[in-house]
Every structure is written in structure tokens, then in C-alpha cells.
């Protein structure tokens, strides 16, 4: 007999849909050039691949077995050394660092461990799409505050720096139920790098309202044009209330390895460990060993020209500039990102290609992105996917591209854009 009562937990209601499932399928089916999902299509550095080969092909057979549940000892040791230096803290590898299955699991552990029913969590829009459902699944209530764009100077392209928080609006979102604020700098999808003044504002409000900060810093090394990535945990009053999240996938261009971490005070990480041990429990040993060796190499070269972090940022800045030029020449209006490997572009000039559908609730950018992948073979992600329900139509004239791609991929994208421009111009 069939069951008559619902089988799904109530916490899953309204969080079942996922933009990536839909658009990855579309890109696989139609796209000749995929600038949608954010991952590099070029190989990771040789030294990291060699480290992984040594890990799986060497004589240490224990690298094929379980390691310490909360982080492979060599990895947490080097992470403590590196981030202790960057944060100005003396870090205990066993108490201040926890390794996770990518930054995604780190975020999940934060929300499950620190957010309770009735808690409010402030999320800055646009935001990486998993923040909202993860807060809801923990029983919390998302409270949204937008970055608002201001017009650039005449004759200049808009920058991600032109998208700013309104101090009074941000302050109005904090209250007695505020448990945490989620910070993502550099920000996905905009590429905004929050300045010291903006971070000090957030820090002051966190201290005033005794709120936590979940700081998603997975693109911490991908910062351009001489900008500085400021770690909010390094600001006065913030170390004891901040969990900082990082990712080997973004740091070393190995998104498929799924190695992430959290850094923070023991009073917070002890609760993350409870969630971790009762969910995935353990992360892949060999990948952690290889990442540990990669960080050992980079710690010796920190800030130097031959550092992979420095070289990758320089190479990606060049790729960013080429895609900016391609989009601008084709008639889209790119927003020049200060960091990450994402670029948002205004598609208003292409509105005639995909006219509005009367009565449709689907945001325009979503329909445009679907039309573009099916008819032009170019995949991107609608910006509305990074906004909460009531605000999805507010900025639905933008789509997001990923520029962490091989030169051949970027050239193919440029060819599509230029052909499209010629078709629009007519004979």
C-alpha cells in the first residue's frame, strides 16, 4: 500500500530547486562554449599534480586509509602556520582549523552548528545561492540587504566597486534576533572586493549586536589591480566571532578535489566539528596530503613573483581584461570585477533578441541565458539566481560569465559574440 502521509521533512520545502542542475544540463546539451559554471578548464599547477601522484603512488599505504576526521595532520599544520601569519594569531592546528569536503560543506557546518530556530542571518545580495537554503534548513530566517550600484564616471565601465552597501540600510537589518552575517569577499557573482572601510562597518555592527560572522573567502588569492583582500577576522573584536572559510579548489584550480577548511576560535569550531563528525565524518586523505604539500611550497614563496597565487591572479586578470573587451565590443556592458573569476554583464542592449513574455514570472535574465545557450551555443548564469525571491526581478538585466578558461575557450566565446554582433547589425 502507498504511504498517505508526506515523506519529505518540512525543512526541504521550498529549497529543492537548484540553478546549477538546470543550467549544467543545458550547457551539456547545447553549449559549444561554457562560461557558466565556475571552474577552470585548464590544468592545476604541475607541483600539485605531482604531489597527488606521490600521495597515491608512493610507499605510504596509509594515505589510502582514513586520516584524522577533522583534518589530515600535515594539512591542518600548514594551514595554521599560513593563516596564523595572515591573521596575526597563534593558531593551534587541532583546535583552530577544520578540514571539510570543499567550502560547501564548511558553509553547511556553519549554518547547522551556529543557527537555531528563530535566528536571523543577514545575507548580502547578490549572494552565492546556497546561503539562503542552508539558513532555512537550519531553521533560521534569512534577512537580505542589497549592494546597490551607482553610476560610473562618464565614459568608464562600471566596476564591482561601484556596488556598495548603504550603511543605514545595513544597520537597520541588525536586531535582537540577529545571530550572524554572511560575508563573501571577494564576492561571487560580482567579483566585488570589500574595502577596509566596508568591513569595519560590518565589524562594528557585529560587535554592537553580538553577532557572528561567517566569512566565505574562497577567492582570497584572486584579487586584481593592486586591490587588497582584507580578512575580517583580523579586525578589532572580530577574531572571537568569525569563522573564515577557504577552498583548495579555488586556490589551486582543483575544484574536483573538494578540499576546504574553516579557521576560527575553538569556541565556534567545536560546534562545527560536531556537525562534521555526524555527517561526512572524514575527507579524502590523498587529496589533503597533496594540498598540504602545495601549501608548504607556497608558504615559502608567499608574495613572491614565482608564487602560484601571484601567477594565477596575474594570468586571470589578463583573461578578465580580454573577456571585458569582447563583451564591450559586442554591445554588452561588463562590470569589471576586482576579484574572483566571474564577470557580470548588462544585457539590456540585447532585449530585442529575447522579448518579454507577458504573464511570465521567470526573470528576464533567466529566459535570456536559456535562449543564448540554445541559440548561440554560449552558456552563462542569470544574475537573478543570486537574489532572493522578492528581488529576483530587480537586477534581471545581468548575466554572469566565468573567465577562468583556456585561451581557446575565450577566443571561441569572442567569436560567438562578434558573429552575434554582426547578425544584429544586419547587411
Sheet having the most strands: 7 strands, mixed
Q: Mind telling me which CATH architecture of the largest domain this is?
A: 3-Layer(aba) Sandwich
N/C terminus separation? 66 Å
Radius of gyration: 22 Å
Structural class: alpha/beta
Q: Summed up, what is this model?
A:
The chain is of the alpha/beta class and 427 residues long. It has helices at residues 19-30, 46-57, 73-87, 102-114, 131-137, 167-173, 196-208, 248-252, 266-277, 285-300, 308-330, 364-375, 407-425, and strands spanning 33-34, 97-100, 120-125, 141-146, 148-149, 163-164, 178-184, 212-216, 242-247, 260-263, 333-335, 342-346, 378-379, 381-382, 398-402. Strands 2-10-9-8-7-3-4 form a 7-stranded mixed sheet, with helices on both faces. A 4-stranded antiparallel sheet has the order 11-12-15-14, with helices on one face.
Amino acid at each position: 500500500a502507498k504511504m498517505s502521509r508526506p515523506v519529505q521533512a518540512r525543512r526541504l520545502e521550498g529549497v529543492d530547486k537548484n540553478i546549477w542542475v538546470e543550467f549544467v544540463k543545458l550547457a551539456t546539451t547545447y553549449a559549444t562554449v561554457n562560461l557558466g559554471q565556475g571552474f577552470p578548464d585548464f590544468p592545476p599547477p604541475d607541483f600539485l599534480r605531482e604531489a597527488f601522484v606521490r600521495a597515491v603512488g608512493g610507499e605510504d599505504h596509509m594515505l589510502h586509509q582514513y586520516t584524522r576526521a577533522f583534518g589530515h595532520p600535515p594539512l591542518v599544520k600548514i594551514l595554521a602556520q599560513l593563516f596564523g601569519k595572515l591573521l596575526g594569531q597563534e593558531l593551534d592546528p587541532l583546535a583552530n582549523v577544520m578540514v571539510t569536503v570543499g567550502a560547501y560543506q564548511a558553509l553547511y557546518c556553519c549554518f547547522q552548528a551556529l543557527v537555531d530556530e528563530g535566528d536571523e542571518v543577514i545575507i548580502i545580495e547578490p549572494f552565492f545561492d546556497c546561503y539562503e537554503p542552508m539558513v532555512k534548513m537550519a531553521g533560521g530566517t534569512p534577512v537580505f540587504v542589497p549592494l546597490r550600484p551607482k553610476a560610473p564616471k562618464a565614459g568608464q565601465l562600471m566596476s564591482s566597486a561601484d556596488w556598495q552597501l548603504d550603511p543605514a540600510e545595513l544597520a537597520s537589518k541588525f536586531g535582537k534576533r540577529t545571530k550572524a552575517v554572511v560575508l563573501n569577499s571577494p564576492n561571487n557573482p560580482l567579483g566585488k572586493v570589500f574595502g577596509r572601510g566596508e568591513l569595519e562597518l560590518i565589524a562594528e555592527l557585529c560587535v554592537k549586536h553580538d553577532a557572528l560572522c561567517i566569512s566565505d573567502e574562497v577567492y582570497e588569492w584572486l584579487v586584481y589591480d593592486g586591490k587588497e583582500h582584507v580578512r575580517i577576522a583580523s579586525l578589532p573584536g572580530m577574531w572571537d566571532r568569525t569563522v573564515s572559510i577557504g577552498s583548495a579548489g579555488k586556490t589551486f584550480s582543483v575544484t574536483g578535489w573538494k578540499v576546504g577548511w574553516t579557521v576560527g576560535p575553538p569556541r565556534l569550531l567545536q560546534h562545527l566539528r560536531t556537525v562534521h563528525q555526524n555527517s561526512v565524518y572524514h575527507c579524502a586523505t590523498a587529496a589533503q596530503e597533496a594540498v598540504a604539500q602545495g601549501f608548504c611550497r607556497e608558504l615559502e614563496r608567499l608574495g613572491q613573483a614565482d608564487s602560484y597565487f601571484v601567477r594565477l591572479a596575474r594570468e586571470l586578470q589578463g583573461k578578465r581584461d580580454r573577456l571585458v573587451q569582447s563583451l564591450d565590443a559586442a554591445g554588452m556592458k561588463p562590470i569589471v570585477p576586482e576579484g574572483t573569476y566571474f564577470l557580470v554583464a548588462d544585457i539590456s542592449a540585447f532585449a530585442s533578441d529575447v522579448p518579454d513574455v507577458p504573464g511570465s514570472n521567470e526573470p528576464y535574465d533567466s529566459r535570456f541565458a536559456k535562449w543564448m545557450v540554445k541559440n548561440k551555443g554560449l552558456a552563462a548564469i542569470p544574475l537573478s539566481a543570486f537574489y532572493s525571491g522578492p528581488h529576483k526581478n530587480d537586477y534581471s538585466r545581468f548575466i554572469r560569465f566565468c573567465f577562468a578558461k583556456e585561451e581557446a575557450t575565450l577566443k571561441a566565446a569572442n567569436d560567438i559574440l562578434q558573429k552575434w554582433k554582426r547578425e544584429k547589425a544586419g547587411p
